[in-house]
Amino acid sequence: MRCFWDDAQRAHAPASEFFNGALHPAADVVERVDSVLAAIGPVEAPPPRSESELLAAAGRAHSADYLDLLATAHGEWVAAGRSGDVLPYAFPVHRRPRTLSRIDARLGAHAYDTCAPIMGGTWSALLAGTGVLLAALDVAVAGSHAFALTRPPGHHAGPDYMGGYSYLNWAAIAALASGKRTAILDLDYHHGNGTQDIVTGREGIRFASLHADPATDYPFFWGSAEESGGNVLNLPLPRGTAFAAYDAALARAGEWLAEDGPELLVVSFGADTYEGDPISHFAIQTGDYARLGARAAALGVPTLIVLEGGYAVDALGDNVAAFLSGF
To answer: What's this model's pTM, rounded to 2 decimal places?
Structure first.
């Protein structure tokens, strides 16, 4: 499997995030990348692309005003006399049509939590990640499997909002840019709420997600089984889910995705389903990931895999490598 990475993605290195009533060290640390790179072997750098090409791809999934915020937020934050990472603190309960100028208001209008800090290098890292994604997508569209080592994660980012460490939605961008009938399979402990919001009702795309029950786990307001319908299938699972139950749900998702005759599979793979993940509560073991990868590969179509969560840094590389080996 061809694997792609751009070292410029290291420029996103936030110091902290706010959740559960306190400021914590950021979970999406650069060391996650080092763990994966050490385990998967050689990676390729993406070919150079113009910023306009990268923006055009991102614009398939995200609004222009949201992309503008991501590009300018840190500069506006500094210009307002602030220091440190950019974080929102005020959120509209109901969106009201008005012109927003202050950076705090713009942030709140395009975020749903305080877990997606923006720093000086975030935008350049996102552009680099888009290049990595498109390079891997080209390989998959041409008929082979590919892995895009995307960082930061993406599946919580919606059409015009960030959250959950996510800013650009890699899976949705790939599906919308592919020109292929696409199945998106989200295998992360947390529901891919942003992906669901972007692709719901889209012709030629199906989205299936296996995740922790939102009654007990983030992102809470999306991902219930009752939201399934049309081109969306949500399969929430209880805390403590181990391989047998997870594999059965994955088989069900694969059968449902196959019904639409996909030409391309995009997998949002998060290894935070691992039994030792510090912020998650499933019981998947490292030895299980190869079998889960093989189960996903059984769909029998060219596949693009993007990296989502996984915060047990020491085990992350082995878990990713095991999943990729299933293909």
So the answer is: 0.97
Q: How far is 82 from 92, CA to CA, in rounded Å?
A: 22
* Active site (annotated) includes residue 191: no
Task: State residue 28 phi and psi, 5-degree precision.
Answer: -85, 75
Tokens of 215: 């009654």
In a domain, 201, yes or no: yes
CATH number, residue 240: 3.40.800.20
Long-range residue pairs from 46-50, CB within 8 A, at least 24 positions apart, any chain: 46/4, 46/6, 46/131, 46/132, 46/134, 46/135, 47/131, 47/135, 48/131, 49/131, 49/134
Residue 91 lies in a domain: no
Q: Indicate whether 76 belongs to any domain.
A: no
Residue range of the domain that includes 18: 2-62+121-325
Single out the catalytic residue among 12, 156, 190, 211: 156
**Number of domains forming the structure of the chain:** 1
* pLDDT number for residue 158: 98
- Which tens digits make up the pLDDT trace of 57-99? 999 999 999 999 999 999 999 999 999 999 999 998 877 667 7
Over the stretch 294-315, which tens digit does the pLDDT of each residue have? 999 999 999 999 999 999 999 9
Element (H, E) at 211: strand 205-212
Flag whether 303 is in a domain. Answer: yes
